[in-house]
Amino acid sequence: MADSGALPAGFGELEVLAVGTVLLVEALTGLCLNGLTILSFCKTPELRTPTHLLVLSLAVADTGISLNALVAAISSLLRRWPYGPDGCQAHGFQGFATALASICSSAALAWGRYHHYCTRGQLAWNTAISLVLCVWLSSVFWAALPLLGWGRYDYEPLGTCCTLDYSRVDRNFTSYLFTMAFFNFFLPLLITLVSYRLMEQKLKKPGHLQVSTTVPARTLLLCWGPYALLYLYATVADVRSVPPKLQMVPALIAKAAPTINAIHYALGGDMVHGGLWQCLSPQRSQPDRAR
Q1: What is the CA radius of gyration of the chain?
Q2: How many Cα atoms within 13 Å fall on the side-chain side of residue 221?
């Protein structure tokens, strides 16, 4: 299906259309919400704080995921991959790098919140910038390794988008999958869980925490857990035994992460009362500032 309009094995016409439609909705929703988050940070000086820089990093990563989903949606609706093998490699690298950046940005944000609530000290700019640089350099590093020979990018079972190849059973691929999953899913998940758990223990009185301590970890588990399980399964068994339709489920679930993150971190926080409201109602914010 990468080179023609023929339906891939295991998929019908309606199923391909359904996948393309779901990806399109997820892409447009994620682009709109995270675009508003980025715009609010750029236009509202009050939001330009070290903590919100971590939110901005997450929004940029999620925007990249949504753009990746948009390309996959268009290809699915066309019923073919029109960008060739090089386009597949670029699509896989871009999607994987932004996915890793989104996961690690969530962990960095969890640590930043722990620092704010438990040490009662403002996060310093140099610390926030260092965290963001570390997140993105690490994500690009891990995403570049398949281009250099450790792992590989290939088409998803539907044949209209590209991701990390988990169908190989040789040691080169399984070692990369296991190592990548440990450092880029389980370790960030552990940091997120420990950070919010320590916040709960230190601030036991109700009303002291203005953020949810359960949603971030649940989002990581819900959106990226299926992918992690698929990768780990591929390290011990032949993943080709899993039906193609079932293999597409983790991809569809993961593309919902940008929307969930935007609702939790931006729409559910002080950004909606500041920058987002000013972006959506600029004519009203000017008189308010004049007063």
Answers
A1: 20
A2: 8
Beta carbons of 59 and 32 less than 8 angstroms apart = no
Closest CA to 106 of 203, 185, 36: 185
DSSP annotation of 45 reads G
HEC assignment per residue over 213-229: CCHHHHHHHHHHHHHHH
Which of helix, strand or coil describes residue 4?
coil
pTM of the model: 0.88
Using alpha carbons only, give the angle 97, 100, 104 rounded to the nearest 5 degrees.
135
3 state DSSP class of 163: strand
End-to-end CA distance of the chain: 61
Taken in order 153, 94, 89, 148, is the CA torsion positive or negative?
Answer: negative
pLDDT in tens, 177-234: 889 999 999 999 999 999 988 888 877 655 555 667 788 899 999 999 999 999 888 8
Q: If DSSP codes are grouped into helix, strand and coil, which group holds residue 32?
A: helix
